[in-house]
Amino acid sequence: MLLRYCNKCKEYTLQTICPRCGEKTINPHPPRFSPEDKYGVYRRKLKKQQKRGG
Asked: What angle do CA 35, 41, 47 make, to 5 degrees?
């Protein structure tokens, strides 16, 4: 079991559904670092688009 996080009520839990509000929880841990970052180009492109607002 891994720690999970609810964005709605800002609480940590071990369940996939938040026991307080019923929302789906997310994995709060960042992805592992890899020197051969296959998706880095896409992630940076998305970040740049979000920064521009589009």
From this structure: 115
51: tokens are 């920064």
Angstrom distance (rounded) from CA 7 to CA 18: 10
- Global model pTM greater than 0.70: no
pLDDT in tens, 8-48: 999 999 999 999 999 999 999 988 888 888 888 998 999 99
Question: What whole-number distance in Å separates Cα of residue 15 and Cα of residue 24?
Answer: 9
Cα dist from 2 to 25, 35, 51, whole Å:
11, 25, 31
